[in-house]
Write a structure and sequence with these properties.
By secondary structure, the protein is of the alpha+beta class. It has nine helices and twelve strands. The longest helix has 25 residues.
Amino acid sequence: MTVEPWFIVAMVLSLAGYCLYLAGLRRHLVEPSRASWLIWAVATGVEAATYLAVNPGKPQGLVFIFSAVACIIITLAMWQRSRWTRPSPTEAICMAASLAAVVLWLPLQETFWAHMLVVAAVPLGFWPTWASVVEDRARERSPAWGLWTLGDLATLVVAVRTHGLGIGGYAYILVELTCHASVWVMVGLDTIDPRQALSVRSRGQKLLDAYVPANPFTIGTTHLGKAVFAARAFAEGEELTRFSGRRVAASRVPRALNGARDRFLQIARDRYMGPSGRIDDLINHSCAPNAGLRFEREGVVLVALTPIAPNEEICWDYSTTLDDPDWSMECRCGTATCRGTIGAFATLPVERQIWYRLRGVVAPYLVETVEPGRERAA
């Protein structure tokens, strides 16, 4: 039996894409959406199975099976380094669609409609990734998106050359092609060069995209565990990274997460930001920090308080956002000025509070002016 050359091209491009993406994930060069990959890990398996049922014997079905296995591998790799949160409404809808497709496919034997239902849910699976890229394009700057797009084009060629496919044969390929291509355009077409995503070159790229430097951070370990280090020099006042995560009411923050396991960031008197699963979760506390959080209209931004040299650990003072008098944890930062305990901002020495306020790295709700006629109790 003659092997279709375009089928080989599709498999090679798909394989290369997943290998490069996994390499970037392990080296912390990409910060993927956990929600999208969890959805894809479930949905691609159903998509592959229903596609083969609708189009038995078609070689492109093997590409989809391979993609499903690769999605599961990447999701498991992310699982080891992330904490998972309750699905958003969009994520829940997509997962429900995948479950409904399984019901249509197996008990009801409605294979075609099961396949079309999962195809319709594909854009929902991409929604968390689109939102992540809009917030910060650098999170997905990987050549994988270009390789997957070209692989989809090769798969489409295979489908056309094999003839006889109806809407059930082309719908999934076209939707996947559109979604992959959209992310590729959003992060920059120049990312097809794998040397950039693997940090072989030190300079950034620019093509249909804003200038994005090489990854400015590395992940290492200290006596506290994982830590974030500067991969290049930062000037005083320079923006380092933006903190992100789902907003959570104070009443819903798990009280059992006291201490080192707590990745919730207080952003208002009654609201917290949950763990993002990205690099901001790994930045440690220090009683003598070189960075601090500024609350801006666009979000919460970590800025350099002093010049930061390459290979220097990046730290900030957790107390600059804390208003909860009941929260505390032991501090083991090891600096000469270590306080021994991390607590609410009010527990800091007055001169330290003033130092942080002058640099604009105290949460707004901690520096509110006392109303006229009201005084603090002595």
